[in-house]
Amino acid sequence: MTGRAFLLGLATIVAMCLFAEHYGRGLVRVFMPTTCLLVLVFWTILNILLKYAHPRWALSRIEVLTIFGMTWLVGTLPGIGVIGSLFRQIAAPSYFSTPEDRFWEVVGPYLPMHLFFEERHPAVEGYYLGVGPGESIPWLPWVRPVFWWFSGTVSLVMAGFFASVLFYRQWSDHERLTFPLSRFPADLLETSEGSRVPDVIRTKAFWAGFALVGGIYAWNISGYFILDMPRITIFDSSGKAIDLGNYFPPLYTFVSPLFIGLAYLCPLNILLSFWVYYLWRITKLGLMSRIGFTVGVAGQSIGPFAIVILEEHGALTFLVAWSVWVARGHLKASFRKAFREPHRDDGVPIRYRTAWLGFLCATCFVFGWLVSAGYTPHIAIIQLLLYFVVYFGLAKYAAATGFVWLRTPGRTGWKILRAVAGSRPLSKGDLVGLVIGDSSGLASGFARPLAIPAIVHVFRMIGNALQRRPLVWLLLPAALLVGYVAQCSFHLHLSYTQGAVNVGGTSVGGHFLGLVGDIEATSPPGFDLQKLLVWIIGAAEAAFLGFLGTRFTGWPFHPIALAFPNVLGFNVFLVWLSKTIIIRFGGVGLFQRSKPFYYALIVAYLVMLGVSTVVDIIWFPTVKGYGTTHSFR
């Protein structure tokens, strides 16, 4: 790893944030955003050109991976990610609340004002409506709330970093997880000695896959100019839902080349498990909705979707607890090396001693942050455990599956706590704090978590360069600081010049509005044993499937599917079917030879996305000065 790659990585983060804020806001939807993959393809192509034009300027494979890894770590900051959500949460209570909704009268006394603006703050109107010509942007009022949100986010992410150091070798060396998301960029950049073009790109299979996906997108882009050209809609999500009847969720059948390419390295049994559970979940929800099945005591019962979420969260919690139990030997060894045998401390990129102490300090800071946000200490401890379940589960099972569409049930856990315990044992500060702790502005919550799932993949990508060097362990804090400052600046400038109401900043958040009723409730719900039993049943189901997997060789179903529901089941089926046929008739050899074809699906999508964006900027600029005219799915 070189200083050149480090500096180029920081510069690329700034460029990525600028692009995403103006032209790719909707590309930041998962913890490995499309904007980061665009960076990978851009630097891959640029590096090939440099090898031909100026070989001495060309980057090594590890340098390109370093740049990509740095952008991935902060990839969920721009667009609709962390920063966009953060500024809406800071400003929305001040701007959108009215005397009629009594938000400030009821919730205001419990709102931590170091995280928000007070009612009708003068800086907020310009943020939402824009400032007039010649008026300056009020930067200073935002410093205090942004700093405190940033401190909570950084402490949470750094706790994830230290935990990743402690668990990485357990997952990599002992459990032998495949890390598919790091395998793709590493394979894409693998180049034989003496060659200027990566090996994958020089195969016929790659260009076959590129032609298949790129040809369809090229046809559709041509339709921007030739209005009579019929659009090929195989990759469009709209209108691709099969109605299964009343009460049953629809079956989505659109094809995502990006998902198919990334999921191809996922083990077959996990692919089959996701597909089967996808169908079973649709069936289960439909049947429960049809008969009106509910769970809970009178007055606080829940319907089918909430029941399934409780069940799935129970499964996730069991998987996380079991994973920690399985890793107990490695954790004991790392603790012994850290504090009893420091001469044997082989932790990377920092010592195990630093990782243990850092994890403790970061966790204590998050605890203090939660208490300052309104949590009582015992509820803050429960929230910390729920955070651990969410982020540990996402990090480990992203490394096991290669799915970037993993989303945890019950968000960051507050819905589970409220469902089981009710709001009766919670203080009013807890009710407000639970909504704040679940906010997307805090490490982006459950939907597109910032950095934590990416950390172990970055470790895996840089391989032998994972050493105890400042350039290695400074990657994360430097990327966070630069990305945060850059994206906050770009977002505020765009919002004050165009008006945040024009760039998707209109929501006050239903959870905040609902706090008025929660705080004033005369008969708040209490502990519900029936809901707890549903949660326990979910954990027992995961335990039973795990037991069958260890008891019977070749057992096809993995409990991970219970813990991470998805809406891309049809794409999972396509990947499972094609991979099964390839391995059945061609064996491992054909599987290895077919990987360039599936990698090409990813690259073609990204290249044509870039082409579509450039075409829009040049020939179809928007009147607003941001965004793109044509949506690209």
List keywords for this structure.
mainly alpha; 633 residues; two-stranded antiparallel ribbon; 25 helices; single chain; 63% helix
If you had to describe this structure to a student in words, what would you say it looks like?
It is a single chain. The chain is mainly α. Helix content is 63%, strand content 1%. It contains 25 helices and two strands. The protein has helices spanning 3-23, 34-53, 61-73, 82-96, 103-106, 122-129, 143-174, 180-189, 204-222, 257-263, 268-291, 304-326, 328-339, 352-372, 377-401, 414-421, 428-437, 452-462, 470-473, 475-498, 510-513, 515-520, 529-551, 560-563, 569-619; strands at residues 241-242, 251-252. Strands 1-2 form a two-stranded antiparallel ribbon. The chain starts with a helix and ends in a 14-residue tail after the last helix.
